[in-house]
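subagent[fold] <- orchestrator: predict structure for attached chain, return tokens only, no commentary.
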Amino acid sequence: MSNPPPPYGQPQPPYEPPPYGHEPSPYGQQPLYNGQPHPPVQPYAPVQPYAPVQPYGAPPPGHPAPPLGSVPPPGNVPPPGWVPPPGFVAPPPRKPDKTLRAVLIGIACLLVFCSGAAVIAGITTNSVPDIDAAPTEAAEVGQFDLELGATAKFSDSDGAQSVTVKSVKSFKEPCNMFAPEPDNDLYVVVDVVVSVTAGTASVSSMNFEWIGDDGVAVSALSGALSGCAKNSLSSANDVRAGQKRAGQVVFDVPSARGSIEFTPKTFGPAKASWKA
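subagent[fold] -> orchestrator:
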């Protein structure tokens, strides 16, 4: 046991370190196990090394290796110098896939048949002239350079229609105070009537075009802001048989000498014309 400490206020005795080899444990006294100190810790048993890994395909230990040449090499074709052992039976040769072969032959026959049919059709179409075909423009001969007031009649796959150019008037100045001056000296006003006699048709001022004596073509957009059309020709689609559209189309032109052409289709040829 250690000596009791001195009373409060009395000088403390000098510190004397314990003898060498009797230093107190830094962790204090170890707890007791069932009243007894803990038993000493046993060291771990040494780890046994793993058994060496056998190479793939090698016989396990204790089994003799097969004689050389008794196992065929991998793949379908043996390497040079390999000699099969006595009693070795080679596998049967692989048969070709009959289904795949039949499919390929069928595709080839189909391509040949289609190519031959196309060639025969081309030869037949190009070698036999259509002797019954008649020119579609035959019924429209004489519908150019018509006099004012004359009516042109024609038809197409959509139906039939008639067009009349009734009159042509010219103005040197705009027809209202807000309209611009003509760029080419004159505003020419053309009064027209378009009637649908069968099927349907589309009507627009863009179907008309002014062709001057100098050959310059002028569209209806040139005089759209002139203010000289009392009743502008309105655009309409699918005008039915028995209906008509009437109005004026204005052109900005350098001279009143020329003609008016009518084109039923926007990108088609002209079908009729009238001398101004």
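orchestrator: received. Logging for downstream: Residues 146-275 form a domain with the Immunoglobulin-like fold (CATH 2.60.40.1240). The chain has a mean pLDDT of 75.
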